[in-house]
Amino acid sequence: MNDNFYDKVIEIVCKIPPGKVTTYGDIAEYLGSRKSARMVGWVLNKQKGNPKIPAHRVVNRKGLLTGKIHFEGINLMQELLENEGIEIKNDQIVHLDKVLWKPKENL
DNA sequence: GGAGTGACACGGA
DNA sequence: GTCCGTGCCACTC
Prior knowledge:
By secondary structure, the protein is mainly α. It has one domain: Arc Repressor Mutant, subunit A, CATH 1.10.10.10. The chain is about 45% helix and about 5% strand. A two-stranded parallel sheet has the order 1-2. A hairpin with a 2-residue loop joins strand 3 and strand 4. Helix 2 packs across helix 3. The longest helix is centred in the N-terminal third of the chain and has 11 residues. The radius of gyration is 13 Å and the shape is globular. The two termini are about 25 Å apart. The model has no long low-confidence stretch (mean pLDDT about 90). The protein binds a DNA duplex through helix 2, helix 3 and strand 2.
C-alpha cells in the first residue's frame, strides 16, 4: 500500500537527477532517522521489480554499489551509473562527493 | 502471535 | 586502522 514511508522513499529516489546518486543514510535521515537506512533498502527491495525506481542511483554511505547484488545483472548497476557520467571503480563510486545528491537540497 | 530478516550506519575496543 | 556489536522500523514466515 502507499504508506508514507514507502511512498516517501520511492518519491525521493524518483527525483534523483541523472548523473547524481544518493545514499541510504541521507534518505533515511530525511525521513527521520538515518538509523532507518535499512528501511530504505527494504523499500527498494520490494520495488526492485519496478523499472521506475532508479535504484542504481542509491548506494551506501561509502559509495559502494551494495544494491547491485539484487540486480539481475551484476554489471547492470555499474553500467547504468557509468552511462550517466559517474565513474565507478571496483564497484565503488570514485567521485562520490561530486555526484552525491541530497533530498534536503532539492526537497 | 512470535521470531527472524534486511540493498545500512555508527560507536567502541 | 580494522573488526565486532548494536539500533532502527516494517515485512514475511
